[in-house]
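To: structure desk
From: M.T.
Subject: fold request, one chain
Message: Could you run this one when you get a chance? Sequence is below, nothing fancy, just the single chain.
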Amino acid sequence: MASEFKKIVLLKGLQVMEDYQFRAIKSLLRKELKLTKKMQDEYDRIQMADLMEDKFTKDAGLAKLIELCKDVEELKEIAEKLKTEKEKVKNQKGKKGKSAAKKRKQDESSSLQTFSTSNESNSSKKSQTPNPSTSRGDVLQMDPMTVMVLNSTHPFEYESSEHGRKTMFHAKVATAKQYYHVKVFNVSLREKFTKNNFIIISNFVKGREILEINENSFVVEAGPDLKFEVPNSIIKRANETPKIRHIEKGASGALFYGLFTLIKKTVKVRNTIYEIKDNEEKHIEVVGNGKCYNINCEEGDKLRLYCFQLRTIEKQPKLVSGDHSFIEVTKCKKKKEIPTAHSSTNDEKQDNMQHQFCYFKVETPNKF
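Reply: Done. Structure tokens follow.
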């Protein structure tokens, strides 16, 4: 059970914290974990999880982390999630201890139900009752699913504290019934994600609206007999930007994508705040860290956001950059100026519509 608790501490706790929040937790644990100044400055989230596991052998420090988080306003939501995950593990272990055979049958039934609802290419969707297991987390989808590619971004580099520097790109695909955002971590598949291309994907991770394709996934082009028509209503919904009034009502941690107009940029010491609006003139703040810090944009430019997480900061909903966040900036057209001897070149005209890509970068500590 301790190993399950450690997963929660690392993946549901330390990994989802902002850098300054993580530093605060290290400071609060300094005496109990006997952290030296160097350890406090350099230890990353994985090293801290290891230390907590060694110190708090019963639950890998989960109870201690919950206690610390619930006393910090910005971490109260994380504390509640940690408590929920802890109860899930305890309940699962309790049921398993009472009746292992019954638990196996329940798991088999749940697994079959999950795969039957998530595999849209093989399912009739006869029942409109949502599968409750889909809200519990992502599912490894082994069975093949045929999709049509709607669009994709250029590959870009990102860094994570676990895997170091990697390359990925975002895409959007659709079946005959639903569209999905896709995180593609295998850039060699870039050519297959060409607009209007039909591909078959398998062995991928499937969430409610997001798919993840990695090095172990399989992607091949679909034959003519497997192609289908994607309804215009699906394509229209895929291209729509969510209203900010709807974003603000979303669940904490939910991921959002969309095209917005920049109103104001405020550069701070630790991050940059981009105030954006939608076509209803509703405003929301975007918190940019790492490579999204102080990007080249100005009032009136269009910001296309990929994979930004909804968080409550200072009691206000904000969109915060994460490991896989990506921003495309479309510069607004400048007013025409009177030509001079040093202007009106082709390059300068092209500068009126330029794109800048940025991605979130997690600062990695020195190797240990």
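Reply (cont.): Residues 103-124, 126-136, 341-357, 359-368 have pLDDT under 50 and may be disordered. Let me know if you need anything else for the meeting.
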